[in-house]
Sequence to fold (288 residues):
Amino acid sequence: MSSEVYADKLAILVWAADPSRPELCATPFYFAAAAAAMDVEVEMYFTARSVELLRQGCAERIEAAAGSGKSVADFRREALALGVRLLACPTAMASHGIVPDALIPEVAAQAGAAAYLGRVMDPAWRTLGF
Amino acid sequence: MSLLRGCEFPDELLYHPESHLWFALLGGGRYRVGVTRFGIALSGEILLFTPKPTGVELAAGRGFGLLEAGKTVFPVKTPFAARLLAANPALDPSARAMNRDPFAAWLVELEATAPVPQGLLPGWAEAQPQIERIMDRYAFRDLADFAAPLFHEDNREF
Fold:
């Protein structure tokens, strides 16, 4: 089986994993890192309250699992180190009072529903939602 | 068998220090590949190994699989252009055997698809000083008292 059979682009929508459900927040980054580690090009689209995970100081205060000593920001940092791109929904930012300067500098761009839907409809991309 | 800071390193194997991989030459350009004891110590307990599909062709530096170690993931990459011939069935579904005996619990067999660059896979004598420098970088003094780092921001090569 050749590598051309498998897609090598993944767009992840992060929607339900937000600071009100801290136990959910590390998983999207873990999956993104795993895909990137398998040489997949990965984009993460943060919308709704999940965009808070890109606000400076937020993910740093969320412990990934009780007693782990590892924050959600640590998982995010590992995903970034593997080349994962983080994208913030501007509509969600406006809804939650997040100005661009409040985002972590590693956010690649602002991108909304149409951008993610473009990935969904593009046969070169696979998609995943959290 | 040599011992370095509590980690065993079989003398007959070849090594790629930067990625913590060992290589056993099977002949005909084929290699069996695994992770060193030092590599396991850095990763923390290994839980899962997911190889890419058998037969896939990989450029040098491309991953042949993914290790999951509880709190983080590591790509494992071939340092030379290769075809993935086989994955170790003993690591399916659990790769925990790697923690007990990393030199028996090999990951994959690779076949070089181009000449392997001279010096890329040194033997133990040449590899030892390189591995020791890496151990120093991690403040790894002895296997017995080393705790795996919680995250691996700067050293994603495995």
